[in-house]
Amino acid sequence: MAVIRIRNTKHTSFVNITSQVREVVKNSGVKSGLCLVYVPHTTACVFINEGADPDVIRDIAYSLEKLIPWKDNYAHSEGNSAAHIRSSLIGNSRVIPIEDGDLMLGTWEAIFLAEFDGPRERKVIVKVIKED
Q: Which is it for strands 13-16 and 93-99: parallel, antiparallel or unpaired?
Protein backbone atom coordinates (compact mmCIF):
# COMPACT_ATOMS: atom_id res chain seq x y z
CA MET A 1 0.00 0.00 0.00
CA ALA A 2 1.10 3.55 -0.70
CA VAL A 3 -0.23 6.96 0.22
CA ILE A 4 -0.01 9.77 -2.30
CA ARG A 5 -0.31 13.26 -0.84
CA ILE A 6 -1.71 16.01 -3.03
CA ARG A 7 -1.74 19.68 -2.02
CA ASN A 8 -4.60 21.55 -3.69
CA THR A 9 -4.37 25.32 -4.02
CA LYS A 10 -7.95 26.11 -5.11
CA HIS A 11 -11.41 25.67 -3.69
CA THR A 12 -12.29 23.30 -6.54
CA SER A 13 -9.57 21.50 -8.44
CA PHE A 14 -8.97 18.39 -10.47
CA VAL A 15 -5.50 16.82 -10.31
CA ASN A 16 -4.34 14.13 -12.73
CA ILE A 17 -2.72 11.50 -10.49
CA THR A 18 -2.25 8.81 -13.14
CA SER A 19 1.55 8.97 -13.15
CA GLN A 20 1.75 8.68 -9.35
CA VAL A 21 -0.61 5.67 -9.32
CA ARG A 22 1.35 4.05 -12.18
CA GLU A 23 4.54 4.49 -10.18
CA VAL A 24 3.00 2.69 -7.19
CA VAL A 25 1.96 -0.20 -9.47
CA LYS A 26 5.42 -0.35 -11.04
CA ASN A 27 7.16 -0.35 -7.66
CA SER A 28 4.89 -3.14 -6.41
CA GLY A 29 6.26 -5.58 -8.97
CA VAL A 30 2.76 -6.98 -9.54
CA LYS A 31 2.28 -8.10 -13.14
CA SER A 32 -1.40 -9.09 -12.96
CA GLY A 33 -3.98 -7.99 -10.43
CA LEU A 34 -6.01 -5.02 -9.30
CA CYS A 35 -5.21 -1.48 -8.23
CA LEU A 36 -7.54 0.12 -5.70
CA VAL A 37 -7.43 3.92 -5.57
CA TYR A 38 -9.26 5.31 -2.52
CA VAL A 39 -9.74 8.82 -1.13
CA PRO A 40 -10.52 8.88 2.62
CA HIS A 41 -12.21 12.29 2.58
CA THR A 42 -15.87 13.31 2.44
CA THR A 43 -15.41 16.40 0.26
CA ALA A 44 -12.97 14.96 -2.28
CA CYS A 45 -13.27 12.05 -4.67
CA VAL A 46 -11.53 10.10 -7.40
CA PHE A 47 -12.70 9.35 -10.93
CA ILE A 48 -11.48 8.21 -14.33
CA ASN A 49 -12.11 10.24 -17.46
CA GLU A 50 -10.34 11.73 -20.45
CA GLY A 51 -6.96 13.17 -19.60
CA ALA A 52 -5.85 14.37 -23.05
CA ASP A 53 -8.14 17.37 -23.50
CA PRO A 54 -8.33 19.73 -20.49
CA ASP A 55 -11.66 21.05 -21.78
CA VAL A 56 -13.31 17.79 -20.64
CA ILE A 57 -12.35 18.53 -17.02
CA ARG A 58 -13.46 22.15 -17.39
CA ASP A 59 -16.82 20.91 -18.71
CA ILE A 60 -17.17 18.52 -15.76
CA ALA A 61 -16.45 21.34 -13.29
CA TYR A 62 -18.89 23.65 -15.10
CA SER A 63 -21.64 21.01 -15.13
CA LEU A 64 -21.17 20.15 -11.45
CA GLU A 65 -21.49 23.82 -10.56
CA LYS A 66 -24.75 24.04 -12.52
CA LEU A 67 -26.16 20.83 -11.03
CA ILE A 68 -24.91 21.34 -7.46
CA PRO A 69 -24.26 25.05 -6.88
CA TRP A 70 -22.02 26.06 -4.02
CA LYS A 71 -24.64 28.41 -2.55
CA ASP A 72 -28.14 27.00 -2.08
CA ASN A 73 -30.60 26.31 0.70
CA TYR A 74 -28.50 23.58 2.34
CA ALA A 75 -28.96 22.63 6.00
CA HIS A 76 -25.38 21.52 6.82
CA SER A 77 -23.93 24.16 9.16
CA GLU A 78 -20.33 24.01 7.92
CA GLY A 79 -21.33 25.58 4.60
CA ASN A 80 -19.76 22.91 2.40
CA SER A 81 -22.78 20.76 1.55
CA ALA A 82 -22.14 21.11 -2.17
CA ALA A 83 -18.71 19.53 -1.69
CA HIS A 84 -20.21 16.59 0.19
CA ILE A 85 -22.92 16.07 -2.43
CA ARG A 86 -20.49 16.28 -5.38
CA SER A 87 -18.05 13.80 -3.86
CA SER A 88 -20.79 11.37 -2.89
CA LEU A 89 -22.17 11.35 -6.44
CA ILE A 90 -18.76 10.73 -8.02
CA GLY A 91 -17.41 8.31 -5.41
CA ASN A 92 -14.32 7.85 -3.30
CA SER A 93 -12.73 4.81 -4.97
CA ARG A 94 -11.91 3.15 -8.26
CA VAL A 95 -10.59 -0.31 -9.10
CA ILE A 96 -8.37 -0.64 -12.17
CA PRO A 97 -7.13 -3.95 -13.60
CA ILE A 98 -3.37 -4.49 -13.90
CA GLU A 99 -1.85 -6.53 -16.72
CA ASP A 100 1.81 -6.76 -17.73
CA GLY A 101 2.68 -4.57 -14.75
CA ASP A 102 0.61 -1.58 -15.90
CA LEU A 103 -2.84 -0.10 -15.40
CA MET A 104 -5.34 -1.18 -18.04
CA LEU A 105 -6.61 2.32 -18.71
CA GLY A 106 -8.08 3.25 -22.08
CA THR A 107 -6.06 5.32 -24.52
CA TRP A 108 -7.39 8.66 -23.33
CA GLU A 109 -8.21 7.74 -19.73
CA ALA A 110 -6.61 9.32 -16.68
CA ILE A 111 -7.21 9.11 -12.93
CA PHE A 112 -8.22 12.36 -11.26
CA LEU A 113 -8.42 13.51 -7.67
CA ALA A 114 -11.27 16.02 -7.39
CA GLU A 115 -11.13 18.55 -4.58
CA PHE A 116 -14.36 20.37 -3.71
CA ASP A 117 -13.48 22.03 -0.40
CA GLY A 118 -9.93 23.31 -0.73
CA PRO A 119 -7.35 24.44 -0.54
CA ARG A 120 -5.96 21.62 1.57
CA GLU A 121 -3.77 18.53 1.45
CA ARG A 122 -5.44 15.23 0.56
CA LYS A 123 -4.40 11.62 0.84
CA VAL A 124 -4.95 9.09 -1.91
CA ILE A 125 -4.51 5.48 -0.80
CA VAL A 126 -3.31 3.07 -3.49
CA LYS A 127 -3.50 -0.65 -2.80
CA VAL A 128 -2.10 -3.10 -5.34
CA ILE A 129 -3.59 -6.60 -5.14
CA LYS A 130 -1.74 -9.46 -6.80
CA GLU A 131 -3.75 -12.01 -8.77
CA ASP A 132 -3.39 -15.54 -7.42
A: unpaired
Angular region, 62: left φ>0, alpha ψ -120 to 50, beta rest: alpha
Range(s) of the domain holding residue 88: 2-71+79-130
DSSP the chain: -EEEEEE--SSSEEEE-HHHHHHHHHHHT-SSEEEEEE---SSEEEEEEE-S-HHHHHHHHHHHHHHS-SSSS---TTS-HHHHHHHHHH-SEEEEEEETTEE---TTEEEEEEESS-SSEEEEEEEEEE--
CATH at 41: 2.60.120.460
For residue range 35-93, what is the model confidence (pLDDT) as tens digits?
Answer: 999 999 999 999 999 999 999 999 999 999 999 999 999 999 888 999 999 999 999 99
Rounded to an integer, the average pLDDT of 24-44 is 98
Q: What is the spatial distance between Cα 24 and Cα 128, in angstroms, rounded to a whole number?
A: 8
Cα 43-48-90 angle, rounded to 5 deg: 35
Domain count within the chain: 1
